Amino acid sequence: MKSVFALILLACLAPIIVGQGRQRGSMADDEARQLLKLATRAQMSLRYVGMRITTVRVQEESIRNEELIWRDGRRQRTEFAKNSTNAGEVIVTDGRTRWHYFPTANEIHVKPAVMEQPLMRLLEGGPRRGFRLSVSAGGKLVGAETKRVDLLDPRGNKAASVWIDPKNGMALKRENFDPTGRLVGSFEYKRVNYSADISPKDFVIQRRGATVITVDALLRKEAAEAGLPPISLSPRSGYALDTVRVVDASGQKILVQSYTSEHGRVSVFVSTQPMNPQRLRTSARGRLNIYAQEFGAYRVVLMGEASEAQLKSLAAWLSREPAGNAS
Questions:
Q1: Which pTM value belongs to this model?
Q2: In degrees, to the nearest 5, what angle opens at C-alpha 176 toward C-alphas 266 and 28?
Q3: N or C: which end of the chain has fewer CB within 10 A?
Q4: What are the pLDDT digits (tens) for 81-93?
Q5: Where do the DSSP E strands lie in 94-182?
Q6: Rounded to whole angstroms, how far apart are CA atoms 244 and 12?
Q7: Tens of pLDDT along 103-161?
Q8: Can you give the CATH number for the domain in which 84 is found?
Q9: 133, 159, 193 — which closes off a domain?
Q10: 157, 231: one domain
Q11: The sheet that has 264-271: what strands, in order across it?
Q12: How many domains is the chain partitioned into structurally?
């Protein structure tokens, strides 16, 4: 069984770019902000077919995928190539609903789509004690001369980088580093075709015989099999349930849920036994905050980039009944 803390890190891994505070008066900072605004707007309007390589490192595990992307504004289709960790899976979103096909189980998981804005969060995130932006020539990627925007801590250590095509705002590459400078997440486009034929049928999944499961039904199923209640966040909290899994930590079942909103990610852990908040903080390398509370006879922990006070307020939206969103 994989380490529970490796799985927790995977469930809680924030988007590649994290929040920062503005370095006032810096021309480089102003240029970086304009580039990030351009890239944020471009996410809503770009139309292309491309291929990118994504990697995520979680302790001893390295997750590598070759992703084929069809993008038309808010609509996107992602196919995972056969040499990928998630080989054969297909994800389609129309900006409102997200369908995820799992070929091994022959299941289609359906849930509300939440458009994450990691670049906007980089612009509007809370102060990070002196974190600043810098801009430099990024070199040529898939035929485009890029600008590289770096996020630096107060000592000049690089926390994240993004390579942007200044002509159209396309983010062609991103990298994320842990506090020791180790690369822990990235993507890079290897091909992009802005004039490719794209059909509305590209954004539909049709599979006869496949079982269609809403994410709330999956939550009820996983919780029941683990002998735990489906304690979850109400959609009225502004967060949409993204993934559900049960992990086994030395015989202790923990229901792990990941939620997404335009403000970022939050994970919720439910168990019958107390969880060690300090150990969770250590597993998250100090970049995420923790709020723990009792929920009847059960223990619930919220973890995310939000402040502990914000997580405490979010806990008021916890309920024993999933929302039961229709597909």
A1: 0.74
A2: 110
A3: N
A4: 999 999 999 999 9
A5: 97-102, 107-112, 132-141, 144-152, 158-164, 171-177
A6: 12
A7: 999 999 998 776 555 565 555 443 355 678 889 999 999 999 999 999 888 888 888 89
A8: 2.50.20.10
A9: 193
A10: no
A11: 240-249, 252-261, 264-271, 298-304, 289-295
A12: 2
